[in-house]
Fold each of these.
Amino acid sequence: MNYAVELTDVSVTFGGLHALNSLSCTVPEKQLRGVIGPNGSGKTTLLNVISGVYPASKGEIRLFGDDITQTKSHLRAKMGVVRTYQDASLIKELTVLENVMLGLIPTTRQPLFHIAFRTPRYRATESEMKGTALEALEYVGIQFLADKKGDELSGGQMRLVEIARALAARPKLLLLDEPAAGLSLIRIDEVKELIRKINEDMGVTIILVEHVLNMVMTLCEEITVLVSGEHLVSGSPESVQQDMQVREAYLGKSAVQ
Amino acid sequence: MSKSFNLNTRNLRYLLYVAFLALLIIAPWVLNPYKIHVLNTVIINIIVILALNLVMGYAGQFAKATVAFMGLGAYMMGLLVTKVDVSFWLAWPAGAVFAALAGTLVALPTFRLKGLYLSIMSISFVLIVHWSFVHLRWVGGASGFFVPTPNFGGLPIERSHGVYLLSVLAMLSAVWVTRNLVASSFGRSLLCLAEREIIAPGFGINVFRTKVTVYTLSGLFAGFAGGLQAINLQFVDPENYWLLQVVNQLLMVALGGVGSILGSILGASFITVLIEALRVFKSLWEFAIGALLLITIIFFPRGLAGILENWFPSIKERRHGP
C-alpha cells in the first residue's frame, strides 16, 4: 500500500511538555482520516508537525515516500501539503478572491522582475491565478463572495473561503483543523458534504481533526484517537466507538466501569 | 435616477492621478524657483514614503531606517561624483544599489527580531549611519559637502528644471512599480506577513526571503531619492539623515495612510508643505508635527487616504491584477 503520510516515533516537546510522545501512524493515499481526542491530546500539534509549523524533536516524517523531517514549512506547502486553521485565517486587507489567490503561491511562479514591470508574463500568471481562484470559489459554492473583504464574512463563510483557498492549489494532502468549529448544524452538514466531495472527486488525502464526533464518525473510513500526545488506537468508526480505552479517555474511568 | 458620469468605478482614482500629473507638468512654468524647490522636495519625499510604506505599511515591519538608506544613497552618489569624478548618471544608480545592499543588511536580523526590538534596531542603524557621516573625515564630516547638479547633455532644459523633471520621472516610476508590486503575489504575501506571519509558510511563502526582498527594494527606492535630494539641494548634509527626519517620515506615513500609495502621496505632500510653511516660526513646526502625529494616530488610524476611501470606496487600491 502507498502511504501519504508515515510518522515513525515522532515526538514534539515544548520545554518539558510532550505535546506528541513517540507517535507512529500511517495514512494511506486518498484516505479520509479522522483524528479525535480530548482537549490537549495533541491533535493540532499533529497537523503542525506534518505541515512543518513545528519541527519534530525526534522521529521521522515521510510524505508520499519522501523523508520530509528536515524540510522547511514553505517547501512542504510546495510539495502539496495544505492546511486550514482553527480560527479561519483570512487576511482582512484582502478580498475573498485575493485570499484564495494567496493559496496559489505554491503552484505559481511570479518572478519579481515581471511583477515590477508588469510584463506579459505577470499578466498571464495573474489572470490564470484569478481564474483558478474563481473556480475554487465556485466549487465551494461561494463565488458571489469574491469581492467581499475578509472581515465582512460570517464565521461559516470564512470556513468555506478557507477551504476554497486550500483547494485552489490542488493539494495532495489536505489537513483540516476543526472545520466545523462554531458552525450551526445546517452549516456542519454542508461542510461535511464538501469534505466528502473533495475526497471522492479529487482523490485528495485528508486528515480531519474535529470535535464534532458525529461528523467524524459518519465521514471517515478510519479514525485515529490521540490521548495525551500518544496514539491510543486507530480503526473503523465502529471499532473506535466500541473501544473501552477510548470510552475511558473521553468519559473517565468510573463511567466505563 | 440616472447618472451621466459614474464615479463608482475606478474613474475617480484616475481622475485624481491625471489632475495631479497635469499640475506637475505645468508647475515649472507657473511657479517661482523657491516653489519649484519645495515641490521637488515633495516629490522626493513621495519616493521615500513609498519606500517606507512598503516595509512598514504593507509588510507590517516596524523598521524605519529609510532615512539612513537615503543618506547612504546621497553620500555614495556625491562621493563618486566629487571624489572619483564619475558621471552623475552612473553615480546615482550606484548610490541606490549601495543603499539597497544596506537594506539587505538591515533585513538579516529580522529573522530573529520583531516589533519593538526591530524598531530599536532600525533606529540604531540610523544613528550609526549618521554618526559615520559626521565623524568620518573623508566623507565630508559634520559640515557635509557640495554636489554639482548633473549635466543634461544636449537637452534644451534649464538646470533646475532638469532636476525637477528627473524627480517627477523617478517619482512616477516609483508609484508605478509600487502599484505593480502591491497587485501581485508578492504584495499579497507582504499583507499576509503584516497580519499573520505565523501562517505565511503554510501558503508556500518563504518569510525570510520575502522580508529581505522588501527591505532591499525599500533601500533601493530610498537610495534613488537620496541622490535626487542631494542634487536638488546641491549639497549633502548629514543633518538631513537624522532622527528628526525619522519622525517626519513616520508622520507622513501615519497622516497619509499606512499601506497605501495614495496615502504616501498625500502624507508626503501635506507634511513637506507644512514644514516649509512653518519654518519661519522657528521651532513651532516641531510642536505642530508632534501634535499632528498624536491626533492622526488617535482619530484617523487610516490617515487621509482612509478618510477619502470612506467617501469614495472606488479609490481603494487593488491587490490583484492584471
Amino acid sequence: MSTNIRWGYAFNQWKQGWQGFARVEDHIRAFKGTSAAGFRQIELTAFPGPWDPVGRPESIAINFGSVKKFATQLPDWGIDRISSWFLDVGQLSFEDLHFGLLPTQRAQHAAILKQATLHAEALAEMGGECLVVAPFPHFYREGALDAERMQAAADCWNAVGRVTKSLGVHTVLHLDALSALRTTQELDQLLTLTDASCVNLAFDTAELTIAGHDVVALYRRYHSRVRHFHFKDALETDTLGEYKLPHAERAMILAGGARKVQRWFGELGTGKVDFPALLAAMNELGYNGLAIVESDKGPAPVMSSVLLNSWYLQRVLKVLPLAA
Amino acid sequence: MTDSAPNLRWAYMDHWRVDSPQGYVSQYSSLERIDSFLKQVASLGFEAIETFDFHMGSFIDLFGSLPNARAYMQERGIDRVLSLFFGLMFDDRQSQPHLRSTHDNIVRHAEYIVKSAAGLGVENLIVMPAAQYHAVEPVSDDKLKACAEVWSRVGKMTLDYGIRTVCHHEFYCGIHHLDELRKFYGYADPRYVFWYCDTAQHTIAGVDPVKLYMELHDRCGGFHLKDTHHVDLIGDYRQRPESEVTAKTTNRWFWEMGTPEGLVDFPNLFKAMKEHGYKGWVSVEHDKADFGGNYPESTAVAAWYIQNVLKKIYR
C-alpha cells in the first residue's frame, strides 16, 4: 500500500502572548528557520485581533497585500505552501464578535460556518488541504455529551465540511486532552454521524495520549478516517481525570494540576508516544495525509524544539532527508 | 551545481548558553544539555563543532575521555571538534606574543593544549595572534615580527600533532589594520601560520574580507562566517576593558548571515572561494547572538542562508 506522508510544522508555539511575534519580519525569520530544519509546509493558527500578521485572512491581506501574494512569497523564504489552518471556534474573536462558539448549540452554527468558510477560502487560495477544528468544547464547559448535542455537533461539522469540500479543503476534527469527547464509543458515534467524504479526523499524538488513549491502537482502529496528524510527544498522562477541573486549560495544562506537572508536551522521542510503532502502522496502512509536527507549551526558544524534532525525524524515524 | 562530492563541509563555532532551572548555563554542564545542543546543530547540516580549549575538561568530566566524547558526538551526527580556540591569557608576565620573553611559555602552553586534545579529531588551533590593541600599541614592525615568530614556532609544533595553527583577527586585536595584516603574514612562515577569515571582525575593522581573501587565499585555513551591522568608525578597538562588550558603537556587533542590515558580502566571498578553488571546512560563528536573540534561531536562519544563497554559488 503506498504511503504519502506530507510533513509540515505548526506555528502555534511561536505566538506567545497577545502582542509577541507580531511583526512580519519575525514570521519571515521563523519561516526561514523552519525551512532550514527541513519543513517546507506550515500550519497556521487562527488568531484574532491585529497582533498576528497571519492570524486571519484580513491580517494576511493587510501585511502581505493579499492572501495570494502571501502564498506566492512563501517560496522566497523556503516554504512551499500553507498546508492547513487550525481554527478553534471556541476562542473569542473580535472580528466575528463572539467570546467563543459552541458547535453543540444549533443557534451558533451559522456563525461557526461563516468563520470556518472565511478561513477555508483563504486556505484554498494558499493551496492548503486541511481546516483543523476543535469539534467540541472542553469537558468542563460542556459536560458529558448526550445524543442531542453529539448530533448537533455532527450536523455543524457536516455543514462546514460540505462548504470546505467545495473549496477543495478537508475539514478535520482535532480531539484534545480536555475535549468533551472522551471515549472510543463516543468517537464511533461521531464518525457514524459525520460525512466521511468531507469530515475526518486530526490525530494529535500527545493530546490523545494525555487523555489516556493508546495512539497506535487508536490509529489502527480509525485509520480510514484520519487525514491529519499533530506529531508531538506527551510527557505525562491525565491519571487523575483533571480534564474535569473548572478551566482545565489553565488549572491542568498551564498550572499542572494536583501533581504540579511542569510540562505536558515534549519533543518527539522524549515521552510516552511510541512514534516508531505509529509510523510503522501509518506505512502499513498506507497513510495519505498531513503529519504536522508541533511544539506546544515548551520552554523558549521555540527554535530549539523545532530543531530537536527535526533531528528525530532525520535520524530516528528517517522520514526527513539528512540536512546537508 | 553537480551531484559530485561537495567541496565544502560545514562546521559551527559554538558560543551557546542555555536557559535552565539553574540559570543561564553552558550546554556542556550536563549530558542532557550537550545532547540537545549537538542534535540541534546536526539537524541543520553542520558536521563538526568548534569550541574553546577550556571546554575539554567538561568533555572528560562528562564522557570519561575525549575519544568517548567524540563517539557521543558522532552518534548524533557531529563528526569532530574541528577546531579549538586557544584561550591564551594575554599578559606581559607570561603570554604576550609581541614580547619575545614570553614566547617559550606560549609554545609550551600551546603544546599542552594540542597534546591534550588527542581523540577529538581537532584539525585547527585558532589563535588571536596579538593581545588587545591597547596592550600592543604602538604597533611596530618589530612587534609584528615578534608575533610572527612565536606563531611560526607554535605552528611548526602543532603540525607535529596534525593540527594547523590559524590566526583569527578580532577587530580589537593588535593586528587588525590592513597594513598590519599584510606585514604579519609577510613575516610569518607560510608553512606554519594560516589565516582564519572572520568575516565580521574584518568588516568591523574596516577591512573588506573579500579583498583580503583574494590576497591571502593561499594562506586561508578556514572561515568564521558571521555578519555585522556596524563598522568601527570611532576607535572602539581601543575601548577598555574589552571592545566587544563595552564598545560605544553598539552592544551587539555580531549577527547571523542573512539579516537585511548585514554588511558582509557573502555571495561575493563565495564567488571568490569558487574562483580560487577553496576546498575544506567552512564554519559559521554566532558570538553573543543572545543579545536580543537566541542561538538556535540565529543558527537556523544562517543555515537557511547557506542552503538558499551560498550553496547556489559554491558548494
